[in-house]
Amino acid sequence: MNTIMEAVSSGTVPERDRITLLDDQFALARAGFLRLDEVLQFCRAFVKETRHRVWLVLSDGLAQVRTLLEEATYPVGDEVVFPEASN
């Protein structure tokens, strides 16, 4: 995954592929196959992103994460722990 992240950061991955990679990361996390912290780490590769369409996918995915966190209820004092990825 580091190689892909480096390619995204350097701008060598075409726009449509960056969009697909982002969308897939969020979909895998929603399905429980990828840990959310891994997805958020992947999102860091897009820090220099300049294309509007890529930012739309990124912001939509992060908005879904925010909604999940806002709707969840956690007893006082408990840590927020996301489910482990499925094997």
From TrEMBL:
Indicate the segments forming the ERAP1-like C-terminal domain, all copies.
Answer: 2-71
The family database entries (InterPro entries) matched by this protein are listed as: ERAP1-like_C_dom (IPR024571)
The protein's name is ERAP1_C domain-containing protein
